[in-house]
Amino acid sequence: MELRSIDSNEVASRSLEVLGLDADYIDFSFPEALAEAARRVVSMRGPISKSAAVRLVREPIRGLPDVDYAVLESVPDVIEQLVSVGDLVESEIDRQGLIQASMLLIGMPRYVAINKRLVVLLGCRPDGVLPVSDELATYIERNGSVRYLRFPEGQEADLLVQLREEGVREIKTEHWLRLPNTETTDRFLTRISNHLDAAIPPGELEGAVMFDPSQPRRHYRSRWRPIRHPPDGTLVLRRPQAYGADRWSVARAKDGLVQRLVDLPLEGRGDRACDEAWRVMAAIDADSGSPGVVSVVPLSGTRARLDFDAPLTAWLHRHLAFFGYPVLRSNGALFSFSVEDEALGQVRELVEQKLWYVWAEGKQGQHE
Q: Is pLDDT of 1 > 70?
């Protein structure tokens, strides 16, 4: 049999085809392609650590056309988005009863109805199989890391019945979009402080780092430092584990020492530990007079780009996926989303009331 070599363009084209994507319209610089690759990795290799999933997405596409440093660096963000909306699940796995390791698994097939004709399609099946049949897969649309099903007018009722018959469960919109209570930072931080009143001394903190709100907001990574002479008050900590991601905690410091510590989550809402931690950090920032900022940049047409300078909680990400889709982040932003102008009021109310952010109008932008 004659062997022939194939170039990188053909490798990319065949890889996209395996993922169910059309290479004439998409390449691996698109978050849609990275999201499909991540789903496939976890469906075939899960349970898997987040770092291993990132590596297994990056390595096969490294060197392919249109895959540059920025694309490779965006892979963890794409995986985080998949966890936030519910395509993937991050769970503590018991390893032989000795170690709890944070691992990624596939979420079960589910859907959320946006309206009669449009639903968000969530979850995966093992071995890279789509969560719906080939017939329903013809209605799949992708925006960033989120998949939708858009049904033809007049067929939506029958197709929804078929969707349920294929074992795809409905999640009520109000449950998927559930939000924390609206409250002041004082009340929220007082509740966290009450948890710390009943907490125990921290024990060993080797390798732990603390969130330092005194550092500039524009450099998120530089806001984390080793625990040396912590300021009095409530702290957010990340503590390394033998396996999996760092453990998130809140602590109380006094006279330069950490005296009390409790692991997150605390609130009993089903949120991830990191989601609670990011909300505590947002409250500390707002309480100290340096709240988070959402920069709003008009785009051509009827859309705007929202630039966030802090990590996105899962519940905020779900709302943003409901109103729009992620875009290439702008300089100085941790995350950027494109949303319809008509949704700006709802998003503004959300971030101002739940995260105490400041809404800042920007300059005219370019079409993404």
A: no
